[in-house]
């Protein structure tokens, strides 16, 4: 059994103070891993259903083998690890702007780090996902400028209306989404995680940029509040031709 509470790492980043901690789940047993940025919780291993659903729902319609995908936001690794469960995935770039989070996985401080680093299909890329998507013609793969992908999965901001940094909001405009779409191959899919319920206006905006767009609710029980929580996965597909 681990200690009741342990701070595993503390780093000062350009976005603020980043903390990784582990504590015992006294209600259900086991260890909980949590990442905080300043005074805000970014993620917890107690609630991972929607992060895993991001991978499953985004890749569900891509049935061909040899998929090349990008995951924006590493976090605890839940979305990336779930994507690797899909046998059609041939390669995966995981883009994160925070070096400490990448190092936590590489050093085995997080449980899924060993899963991700041991899989030859997975490669970590240190970089600003939003700058790569919007401002850089080189795109997401430093070794292959201009490379396009079958799927892009994004879990960084809390929602399109609640961003971690003001500059991220550029992505959630028609112009920004069109730039993101250009990094997809024909028929490629964009999946976005949101902590909020569906924003019908954003779904409609996706539909003006992509060939199809939908929002899927992910419901799970939150024992801390003793009620069901609802988060959203947006899925938008680029036209085949």
State the helicity in percent bands: 10-25%
CATH class: Alpha Beta
Distance between the termini: 55 Å
- Helices and strands, in N-to-C order? EEEEHEHEHHEHEHEHEE
The CATH superfamily title: Vaccinia Virus protein VP39
- Major β-sheet strand ordering: 7-6-5-8-9-11-10
What does the largest sheet look like?
7 strands, mixed
Please tell me how large the radius of gyration is: 17 Å
Q: What count of helical segments does DSSP give?
A: 7
Count the E strands.
11
Mean pLDDT across residues: 93
Poorly predicted regions: none
Give the count of structural domains.
Answer: 1
Q: So, CATH architecture? A: 3-Layer(aba) Sandwich
Structural class: alpha/beta
Query: Which fold name corresponds to the CATH topology?
Result: Rossmann fold
Description:
- This protein has a single domain (47-237), classed as Vaccinia Virus protein VP39 (Rossmann fold, 3-Layer(aba) Sandwich).
- It has helices at 49-59, 78-84, 99-106, 113-118, 129-134, 174-181, 200-209; strands at residues 5-13, 16-24, 31-37, 40-44, 67-72, 89-96, 122-126, 149-154, 184-194, 212-222, 227-237.
- It is 23% helix and 37% strand.
- The protein has 241 residues and is α/β, with parallel strands linked by helices.
